[in-house]
């Protein structure tokens, strides 16, 4: 039986300010929760409609009705857990890094984190106006990848300037990414869904790259998550050869 | 003023059976509607909260309240239009073609249609259990690309067997797509979100390809839309060189 105040305390975590103050976040569904547990994330409380053997402490069996009250999903999915936010290690000036300049959609951010994980990118730098990676929608979209990708919210321009890695940015009018070879280390900057990379951040980009368009010229630009997929693949195929 | 029967007649188009019988579909928002008009799609009726100059016939000014009643969106977006489904040309056995085997999510299908448009793929073949491309959610996600990509719903295996183009399929255990060069013409088969390419369709695949994974091996597979983005880019970069 979950008390009213407990329900309130849990659902408050749907808001960033409470996640920030309490350093906690919500994950839902057996698959995402078990991925986070496997990755060694620290669990604060686990609510499940079935008895479970994974955890003993902080485990509470709940009814489907109770789960519905604490869930952020349209259709609650068997279990919900409250995790402690990981303490990020310091940013390391090496490897391949993705940087996001005001990416606002939680679904896009979640997909990008999952892509980083697939392509072995373990550092993601976000401008302070990028969506919060501990937003429940992002956590669901990452499918557990959040446990393996360190996300840093920083003043983006200053941070980019403080790093020695070469800085690439995705632009509609950049150099054709299929020409030449990308380095195995560097920073790939992706811009906002509607406006692309901002003027402020553009100033620190060293190489503007672009995915050539083969279809009609009236087409919308590629979605930021699909463009990130293609560009990360381009960086990695260079290593493969 | 829209009558109750008119509201019913419009909202019925949210269901596939009515779209099929009446050969009509819904598009919403000024951007998507103007893309479809520009592409020469035939409009049946246009409801707008503002006076418009684009169309004279079949144009109805509505209140925000009325628009809300006919909209499929959470937040109705200024205008809604009913278009006539285009009559597809016959499938042509040349060029680069994408084939979908039971892709169920409308958002994924919409993203894939937009990718086809970007990469100049103007024929998309779908198994009969793939999501309907005239579903309002797909139309919104395509951002008008549906006007430039012909989508064919067919018995997939028979159709693939009837074409002479080489057939590639995306598999977790396929040949590394970064090794070797892809041809400029062929069929790329992408499978269902949860199960990948079905056993039935696998029988007609001539080359199994795969996007190498660089991160942790516990990661989920790539989402079907992001995997399609990367593989289409691989087919096109071959032409570029």
UniProtKB/TrEMBL annotation, chains A, B:
Pfam family, one: SpoU_methylase
Gene Ontology MF, one: RNA methyltransferase activity
Keywords: Methyltransferase, Transferase
GO terms, biological process: methylation; RNA processing
Domain MRM3-like substrate binding stretches: 5-80
Family (UniProt): Belongs to the class IV-like SAM-binding methyltransferase superfamily. RNA methyltransferase TrmH family.
Name of the protein in question: RNA methyltransferase
Organism from which the protein derives: Rasiella rasia
InterPro entries reported for this sequence: Alpha/beta_knot_MTases (IPR029028), MRM3-like_sub_bind (IPR053888), Ribosomal_eL30-like_sf (IPR029064), rRNA_Methyltransferase (IPR051259), SpoU_MeTrfase (IPR001537), tRNA_m1G_MTases_N (IPR029026)
Residue ranges of domain tRNA/rRNA methyltransferase SpoU type in the record: 96-232
Lineage: Bacteria, Pseudomonadati, Bacteroidota, Flavobacteriia, Flavobacteriales
């Amino acid at each position: 039986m979950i008390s009213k105040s407990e329900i309130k305390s849990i659902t408050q975590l749907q808001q960033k300010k409470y996640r920030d103050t309490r350093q906690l976040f919500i994950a839902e569904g057996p698959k995402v929760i078990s991925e986070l547990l496997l990755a060694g994330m620290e669990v604060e409380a686990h609510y499940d409609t079935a008895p479970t053997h994974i955890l003993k402490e902080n485990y509470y069996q709940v009814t489907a009705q109770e789960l519905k009250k604490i869930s952020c999903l349209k259709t609650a999915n068997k279990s919900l857990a409250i995790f402690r936010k990981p303490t990020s290690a310091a940013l390391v000036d090496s490897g391949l890094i993705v940087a996001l300049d005001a990416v606002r959609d939680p679904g896009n951010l979640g997909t990008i984190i999952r892509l980083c994980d697939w392509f072995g990118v373990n550092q993601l730098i976000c401008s302070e106006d990028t969506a919060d990676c501990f937003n429940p929608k992002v956590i669901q979209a990452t499918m557990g990848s959040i446990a393996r990708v360190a996300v840093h919210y920083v003043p983006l321009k200053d941070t980019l300037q403080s790093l020695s890695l070469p800085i690439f940015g995705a632009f509609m009018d950049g150099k054709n990414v299929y020409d030449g070879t990308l380095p195995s280390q560097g920073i790939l900057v992706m811009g906002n869904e509607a406006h692309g990379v901002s003027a402020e951040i553009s100033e620190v980009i060293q190489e503007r790259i672009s995915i050539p368009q083969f279809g009609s010229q009236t087409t919308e630009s590629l979605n930021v998550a699909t463009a990130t997929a293609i560009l990360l693949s381009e960086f990695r195929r260079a290593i493969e050869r």
